[in-house]
Amino acid sequence: MSFQILEIVLYSNTGKMRILPLRTNSANIISGASKTGKSAILHIVSYCLGDKKSDIPEGVILEKTSWFAVHLVREEEELFIARRNPGPGKLSSEGIYIEKGSKLDVPDYQKLTQNSNRDTLITLLNQFAGISDYSFEKKPGQTRNTGAADIGKALIYCFQEQGEIANQRLLFHRQGEQFLPQSIKDYMPFFLGAIDRDHVLKKEEVRRLKQELRRLESNKAEQERMRGTFFERAHSLIAEAVSADLLSTNQEMPHSWKEVKEVLAAAINAKAEQTFPETQYGLELEKLFGLQGDLRSKHRAISEEVAALRALKSGGQGFAHEATEQRARLSSIGLLPTGKESIRSVCPLCSSTLNTPAPNAEAIRATLQAIMHHLEGVSSDFPHIDKLIANAEAKQAEINAELRNLDSRILAIQNVNKRIEVIRDSNAKRALIQGRLGLYLETISNVKDAAEDSKEIELLRSRIQALELSLADEALQERLDSVLSLLSKEMSDMACTLDLEHSIYPMRLDTNKLTVVADTENGPLPLERMGSGESWVSLHIITYLVLHRWFARKGLPVPNFIFFDQPTQAYFPPDVSDETVRNTDRESVMRMFRLISDKVKDAGFQVIVMEHADIQEDWYQMMIAEKWWDGVKKLVPLDWMNGV
Questions:
Q1: DSSP state, residue 137
Q2: Residues 483-535 pLDDT 10s
């Protein structure tokens, strides 16, 4: 079930409200004189329901109104939509206020602030109307774009403007706009229910299966192209596995992907390592290397000690030799007497007695005396140094012997380790090959043999073919023809009720030419060739009434309301009161409104008629929503025009 209209609301520039209430599931007639704003109501509703641009006529309405709004209802849910007046000379406004809930009150002017935009409004209206995701797919060779069902396409069935309701060539709202006729044809099966949810789901499944089919066919073609190369690679890897003892030397080369995967899996799962007594040798070798390091450290320390002692001895010997040489030279010329007193008072150059000893001479003598003292000490240390050197060299010899022994033991263990390294290298090679096999097996995990691919592809093609058969144009056309046949019967009955010309013949909706056709004895007679304004108006009304009765009964996603603007225009001029109307015209008009009243009752939709006629009959007056005949009451109140 879709939605109907509870109220149409206008807000003035000063914040006042004009509320036009409407009855649901009923006919609502707004009767009034010309220039009271009746025709603008249709355009206001259309604008509030998401039109890209406003067709509200220029003048008082646009000048004195700030916001336009509609209050919608669907079962227990309500939706209030207000859209800002684009203003004179402008086409549209993105200022949109939306409120959703149950038992909503019309909001005050101060509450109207933009909380949405047109895209959000369209999405919300699609949901509120019950329009599911459906897109029309063009046939091969067609150039038009693929579209989607939305509220704009559904509203085609909700409006009949003054210039449309009596048009002999165009049956539907906006049918004269470019590209709209084709869009109406494309989506009419969906809105008539010939395309149900099951049909949409099947179409989506076909689309998904075709994508999968294209993928499988592409994979199959690629696999067939690369099959020889792929098997060469597989055979090469299997040969490596055999050489590393991962597979038996009697292994035969496989010739199917299934066998390849089995052989590779067996090689990957083979035991990768050979065991060897590495632990005991490793620990012993580690211990010997530790001892070797310690001995070498000791050897370096002793070698440094021996070198230092020898350097000390060599330095002492050099000092002693030089000091002895200098002392001998001084003694040979008698410059250094042996007595301490004579040393202080005798001139070292002329041997004369000095009353005041010379400092320089005294210093020379003191220095030489000190040298002589040190010379005696150094000479006495030489035997001790020789002993230290001998001890250090003995320790050094012991360490060298121990190192030679350790080297021999290490070499023996290393000879054993060479055999261990061979095993280790073999294990590393096996692990490397297993890694390459695993990587290759992953790359061919989705590769199947030609027979398997062909079987899966054939199953997929069969599934697609079965679905497409149920979705075929012929099947769809059969369902659509069934719906149109039911509608045709009701259209024919209504034409007889209105006593229309050609009503003795069956009437039907032609979805290809978007018109009404009477199937006469002389062939099909389209609307444009039927020769009276009464027929044109009546068949527009009949078509819309029949369609909405069908929409309501089937719960289809089309808003449950119709706007008819000036349906009596074909019968008499708008400035002539009904008392002066000829009896034939009056009778036709009464039949038309009685038909509307009868067909709306308990049908689950509403009709809003903007009309000049004010028939003084109780049944007609009961359909009146408002009268605008007194010159005071109009769509825009008089006080708004005065800026109040």
A1: P
A2: 999 999 999 999 999 999 999 999 999 999 999 999 999 999 999 999 788 99
Full-model pTM: 0.62
- pLDDT attached to residue 580: 45
- For the cut 80, the answer to whether the pLDDT of residue 250 exceeds it is no
Contact 592, 565 (CB under 8 A): no
d(CA 620, CA 628): 16
- Output the pLDDT for position 292: 77
CB atoms near residue 76 (< 10 Å): 8
Transcribe 535-595 into DSSP letters. HHHHHHHHHHHHHHHHHHHHT-SS-SEEEEE-GGGGTS-TTS-GGGS-HHHHHHHHHHHHH
Tell me the average pLDDT of the chain: 81
d(CA 80, CA 425): 81
CA 121 vs CA 6, 29, 85, 133, 284: distances in Å: 18, 28, 16, 16, 85
Structure tokens at 236: 């090469």
CATH 3.40.50 for domain 4-180+555-641: yes
Helix (H) or strand (E) segment spanning residue 495: helix 473-497
The three-point CA angle 230-235-241 to 5° equals: 130
Residues 365, 369: Cα–Cα separation, whole Å: 6
Of residues 536 and 411, more confidently modeled? 536
Handedness of CA 70, 71, 75, 76 (dihedral sign): positive
CB atoms within 10 A of CB 25: 15
Q: What are phi and psi of 353, to 5 degrees?
A: -75, 135
Helices (H), 333-472: 340-345, 359-443, 450-471
Report H helices in 333-358: 340-345
Q: What are the residues whose beta carbons fall under 8 Å from the beta carbon of 32, sequence distance 6 or more?
A: 38, 612, 626, 627, 628, 629, 633, 634
- Residue 590's region, left for phi above 0, alpha for psi from -120 to 50, else beta, is alpha
Cβ-Cβ contacts under 8 Å for 33 (sequence gap 6 or more): 612, 628, 629, 631
By CB neighbour count within 10 A (0-12 exposed, 13-18 middle, 19+ buried), where does 141 fall? Answer: exposed
Q: Contacts from 415-421 at CB under 8 Å and sequence distance 24+? A: 416/281, 417/281, 417/285, 419/276, 420/276, 420/278, 420/281
Please provide the DSSP assignment of 423-445 as one string. HHHHHHHHHHHHHHHHHHHHHTT
